[in-house]
Amino acid sequence: MLSYVWLIPALPLLGVLVNATAGRWFGRRLVAAIASLAVGASFALASLVFVTMLGVPATALDGGNGREWTIPIFRWIVTGDLKVEARLLLDQVSILMTLVVTSVSTLVHIYSAAYMRGDEHYKRYFTWLNLFVFMMLVLVLGDSFLTMYIGWEGVGVCSYLLIGYWFERESAAEAAKKAFLVNRVGDFGFLLAILLIFSKVGSLAFQDVFPAASALAPAAATVISLLLFLGASAKSAQIPLYIWLPHAMEGPTPVSALIHAATMVTAGVYMVVRCYSLFERSGSALQWVAWIGVLTALFGATMAIVETDLKRILAYSTISQLGYMFLGAGVGTYTMGLFQLTTHAFYKALFFLCAGSVMHALGGETDIFKMGGLRKRLPWTWAACLVAVLSISGVPLFAGFFSKDEIMHLAFVEGNIALGVLALVTAGLSGFYGFRLFFVTFYGSPRVVERSRRSRQMRASSSERGAPSMVERAQGIHESPWLMLAPMLILAVLSVTSGYLGLPKVLGLGNAIDQFLHPAFSASTRSSLGEGASWTQWAVIGASLVETSIAITLAWWLYIRKWGTAERWSQSAGWLYNLISNKYYVDQAYERGVVQPLRALAAGLSSAVEARGIDGAVTGVGRFVSLAGEGLHRLNTGRTRQYALVLLAGAALIVSYLLLRSVLG
Amino acid sequence: MVPASYYLILAAILFVLGGIGVLIRRSALVMLMSVELMLAGANLTLVTYSRFLGKVDGQAFAFLVMAVAAAEVAVGLAIAVSLVRHKDTTDVDEIDPC
Amino acid sequence: MELVVFLILAVLAVVSGAGVIAQRSATRSALFLLACFCCLAGLFILLNAQFVALAQVIVYAGAIVVLFLFVVLLIGIERVAEKPGPRKSERVAGILLGAMLLVGIVWAILATKGSTAAPLSRADNVREIGQLLLSGWAIPFEMAAVVLLVAIVGAAVLAKKRLEG
User: Fold this and answer.
1) C19 touches chain B (CB under 8 A)
2) pLDDT per residue over A223-266, tens digit each?
3) What distance in Å separates residue B36's CA from the closest CA in chain C?
4) Radius of gyration over alpha carbons of chain C, in Å?
5) Handedness of CA A10, A13, A19, A21 (dihedral sign)
6) Is the pLDDT at B39 greater than 50, yes or no?
7) C48 touches chain B (CB under 8 A)
8) pLDDT one-digit tens code per residue, A538-555
9) Which residues from C are below 8 Å from A when comparing CB atoms?
10) What angle do CA C50, C54, C55 make, to 5 degrees?
11) Which residues numbered 35-64 in B keep a CB inside 8 Å of some CB on C?
12) Which of A417, B41, B46, B82 to pair with B15, CA 20 to 30 A apart?
């Protein structure tokens, strides 16, 4: 089994190579099929590896993790004393991430085959999507910080390429640039952390660094951990580097589903969880993680409440849910953080695919207040979306409930009251915005509005080019093709069933996912399920049930019963509403505080230093040479007597020199 | 006995006079004459040393210098003649290109 | 006694030399040159270089100066006459340079220790030089002959009138 693990990342890479080189001669179906098959095969292989893994005992003979293997691939750098091998690390965490990534990727690929059908650059899309999967797998399967960094950068590049897929549109190009630049800031932190690790430990391989973590000084561990978290917060859109994610919605919806919901943005969580030894060694790093996580969660949820763009609501929701994952990691329950990662991947990807389905039906509309009355026309999409919303709101029996509740409970027990309360409030807000989106989009009278053909073309897949006008359209809205619905339904099922992997302790049925993942964190000093008494968990469950019901009822009241109430409320809370709907003016703050000074600096440097200094020096050399030449040119007068004079002067000089030398020397 | 330095100083004076003449005068012919003066000064130095060192080499050298000076004068005057034919003057300042 | 003769000859030589460069008329310069050469011949005899003195008179005074005079007469006096002197700056520079050079050389001369004169040889000067020229200095001697040949050919070519047509 171990010798085939390298195929898991290699298959998508093969897909890339085949499509990139020979894709132009393939038809659309073949390109999509190759890409999807590559990822699908990867998923099948990963599942096989997983099953095989279950057959191996969980605890090793020495009490450590029994299911952990390092698989060498090839010798990479050999110079002098530095020997770097490319290796894969297979353990519970990496196989879980691999399964999540490959499963969601496969479903998104299949969905994309239909969604992107009208697009011109089909081949480019699938090539990059496959490349992304490859990079993500390198990230989660790598066994050293170096490999992880490569995957990290790779997914960043693919994100840039895919956000800016419709690069002819200026907003998309800007969004891609913003995503990349903000990520760069995080990458810088990551790189600094890597350098520090290398200087302190002398190696970058996980198997060398983590055991040595306990030997580090806590201060050093804190610095390293915070730098790593800087990288994670850029990739996973936490405060203050979340600003790129809402704009990343300019990319195609399947891309948003895959990259900006299920996989790339979870890389930060993966990193923090993977480096738990370092974070635990530092006294305060995990506190930072927890607090930033919960604050981001609250922050994102408040902005989702007032947002009107369908995909942006989901983006803020993702930011909020990622905060939850970090909260989980921060209070020490890595397993539950990963659990939330898994369930969120499923239901958020589902949510995005539903959004794509709606947009496909409406010719690219994303403003939810321009939708409505779609329940009867898009029944399957409605049903899938309902599952997703129930999950995100934490309604019992659906996956979101189980993962969120665990984290909330542990926030109270292992963290402190403040963390728990904030987590609870955020959960309520999640319920509210989720159902707000659902009700406004699917219920009520149709508010679908005609939009100009050109803008429509730019927004969604071009399959809707030339769609009919409003009246005709309201009658012509149709459900999405089966190629799009099937992945959605599969994800819906997963959104329900994956929850049962992590049943609460109080039910006495055993938390399967925790049991599976726990050995990977054998060196942790934190408890993964909390030591609290069972009443605390019941209390938390009860509280969350109560607030979820309140949230759903409120959403129903505002958006179904008494339409227009919401608008009145938002007007009466004028300043608060404005503050939030302008996203707390964070973007403007960045623009003023960071972007403009940098631009000014660049302009200053380019005019003063570059033009006058460096260019001046270079042209100055040229000018100097020609001036010297002209000066020397003046010696050539052609006047014989002057030549004679110069001759005699030379002779006189030599004589005087010799004399002086003999006199003084 | 006249000391050597007297002869040598005289030779130096003649040499420098010739040099100044080359720089001051405008006529090509006079410039040539000044050059001859310089050569004469050199010859005097050679012969002086020949006398004071007791060897005859200096005189042989002076003799050869004389031969070369003659050749040079011949060619120089031929040039001056041809110059006059073309430019109708022997003034070096007027035949200068600038 | 010798000193007196030397002084007379020296002064005459210097005066003639100054005359060469100071005279406005080219013919007068030539004649002063002649005088200078004759003084030099006398000095050579004082230095026991009879052959050189003779050669000086025959070659320099007899041939070279005469050649000068021939050319001056050939060209015509009016064309040899000079317009007023060169630019002031050059003249000053020239004189200064000359003075500097003179000072330098004189200094050098005076700085060296005076050498005692070797005893006068009673040998036949001409024979001695002849022997030297044809043995040790044979090659320079022959080369001088070549130089003269070249000069003759060159002068002839340069001075020839171009054939018209």
Assistant:
1) no
2) 889 999 999 998 888 888 888 888 888 888 899 888 877 788 88
3) 9
4) 20
5) negative
6) yes
7) yes
8) 888 888 888 888 888 888
9) 86, 90, 93-94, 97-98, 100-101, 104-105, 107-108, 111
10) 115
11) 36-37, 40, 43-44, 47-48, 50-54, 56-57, 59-60, 62-64
12) B82
The burial class, CB within 10 Å (0-12 / 13-18 / 19+), for A206 is buried
Phi-psi domain of A477 (left: phi exceeds 0; alpha: psi -120 through 50; beta: other): beta
Structure token digits, residue A422:
């904030």
Sign of the alpha-carbon torsion through A276, A242, A249, A324:
positive
Residue A508: exposure state from Cβ atoms within 10 A (0-12, 13-18, ≥19): exposed
The mean pLDDT of chain A is 82
Whether the bond into A240 is cis, omega within 30 of 0: yes
Name chain A contacts of B15, Cβ cutoff 8 Å.
Answer: none
Which chain B residues are within 8 Å of C114, Cβ to Cβ?
A: 3-5
**Does the pLDDT at position A455 exceed 50?**
no
Q: Which of B30, B23, A643, B13 is nearest to C93 (CA)?
A: B23
What are A276's two structure tokens? 């738990």
pLDDT at A468 over 70: no
State the first-to-last Cα distance of chain C, in angstroms, to the nearest integer. Answer: 67
DSSP string, B34-95: HHHHHHHHHHHHHHHHHHHH--SHHHHHHHHHHHHHHHHHHHHHHHHHHHHHHHS--BHHHH
Residues 6+ apart with CB under 8 A from C133: B60, B63, C141
Question: A411, A419 in Cβ contact below 8 A?
Answer: yes
Is ipTM over 0.85?
Answer: yes
Q: Which residues of C touch A655 (CB under 8 A)?
A: 101, 104-105, 108
Specify the pTM: 0.68
Go through A428-458 and write b for each residue having 16 or more CB atoms within 10 A of its CB, e for each that does not: bbbbbbbbbbbbbbbbbebebebbeeeebbb
Closest CA to A459 of A189, A114, A187, A172: A172
- Residues of chain B with pLDDT > 70, as a percent, come to 94
- Long-range pairs for A278-281 at CB < 8 Å and ≥24 separation? A278/A209, A278/A210, A278/A213, A278/A216, A278/A221, A278/A224, A278/A225, A278/A228, A279/A221, A279/A225, A279/A329, A280/A213, A280/A524, A280/A525, A280/A526, A281/A213, A281/A214, A281/A216, A281/A218, A281/A221, A281/A225
Both structure tokens of C86: 């060169």
Identity of residue C115: S
3-class SS at C76?
coil
Asked if residue C114 lies in contact with residue B4, where contact means CB atoms within 8 angstroms, the answer is yes
Element (H, E) at A82: strand A82-90
Q: Which chain C residues are within 8 Å of B27, Cβ to Cβ?
A: 26, 80, 82
According to the model, what pLDDT value does residue A263 have?
Answer: 85
Tokens of C99: 């003075």
Gap between the terminal Cα atoms of chain B: 54
Out of A154-168, A258-272, A444-458, B82-96, which region has the weakest mean confidence (pLDDT)?
A444-458
d(CA A250, CA A253): 8
Distance CA A604, CA A410 (A): 52
Q: How confident is the model at residue C80 (pLDDT cuts 50, 70, 90)?
A: low
Residue type, B12: A
Taking alpha carbons only, the member of A183, A310, A294 closest to residue A241 is A183
Residue A506: pLDDT band (50, 70, 90) is low
Contacts of C63 in chain B (CB under 8 A): 70
* Mean pLDDT, rounded, for A475-492: 78
